Amino acid sequence: MRFRLLRRRLTISAPRVAIRSAMPWPLRWLSAAVVLGLCGAVALWAFEFGKSIAGLDSGAREELQRLRAEVAQLREENHRFQDQGIAAKSLRTAEGVAMDRLSEQVRQLEADNRSLRDDLGFFEKLIPATKVGKALSIRGLHAEVLGDGAQLRWQVLAIQPMRNAPEFKGRLELVLAGSLDGAPWASQSPAVDQPVQFQQYRRMQGVVNLPARAMVKTVTARLLEGSSVRAIQTFTLE
């Protein structure tokens, strides 16, 4: 029996024997970590040493500094362009406002020019037709049919072309004549009958309604003082 047990232990069929270390596992992990750290430090040192030998480290730093300088310059240029864009936008806005004001001034000047031309024509009519003219007279009688022919616009200028003229107190009458439904026609009563009072000149104007289907051909203006006709003028419509 002893011989069999001894042979079993000495032969291949003998049971396996595991040999374990007596070091605790925390120390084993710590040792492994220290070894890995040393390996990493050696690898990093070798990498940095290789770059310094090859001259790559200094070139990379110079390139990085150059790129940073270019980025700073580009940012500065971007800010400058933004400021220029804002200034250009403000300038365009100011130019637009100035153009609007200029257009408004041009329209106002055109309106003033038309008014001055009208006033010039008005005062030209105040100039006496003859060197010695002292009688009350009507000048600047004008009339025109408006729109669809339902109204007539009229204008009258009455003057006394002399210095220290006596004050005139009377009335103005406008009589219309033409055709109605193809037959001759004249207004039975004055289309305009209004009081007038002035010393040198008086400009009067207004609008009167016309009968339906009436065609006005002439407008006669009369200045009356009491029952006496002091001045008369007739205007023919084209």
In short:
The protein has 238 residues and is α+β, with helices and mostly antiparallel strands. Helices cover 46% and strands 31% of the residues.
Q: How do the helices and strands line up, and which of them pair or pack?
A:
Blueprint: H1 2-10, H2 25-54, H3 56-126, E1 137-146, E2 151-159, E3 168-180, E4 183-186, E5 192-198, E6 201-209, E7 214-225, E8 228-236
Antiparallel strand pairs: 1-2, 2-6, 3-4, 3-5, 3-7, 7-8
How would you describe the overall organization of this protein?
The protein is α+β, with helices and mostly antiparallel strands. 46% of the residues lie in helices and 31% in strands. The chain is built from three helices and eight strands, in the order αααββββββββ. The strands form two sheets. Strands 3, 4, 5, 7 and 8 form a five-stranded antiparallel beta sheet that branches. The longest helix has 71 residues, at 56-126. The protein is rod-shaped, with a radius of gyration of 58 Å. The termini are far apart.
What descriptors fit this protein?
238 residues; alpha+beta; five-stranded antiparallel beta sheet; 8 strands; 46% helix
Strand runs, count: 8
Specify the overall morphology: rod-shaped
The overall average pLDDT, rounded, is 80
Total count of helical runs of at least 4 residues: 3
The end-to-end distance, rounded to whole angstroms, is: 161 Å
Helix content class: 40-55%
Strand content: 25-35%
* Unreliable sequence segments: none
* Rg measurement, Å: 58 Å
Report on the biggest sheet: 5 strands, antiparallel
What class would the helix/strand composition place it in?
A: alpha+beta
N-to-C SSE series?
HHHEEEEEEEE
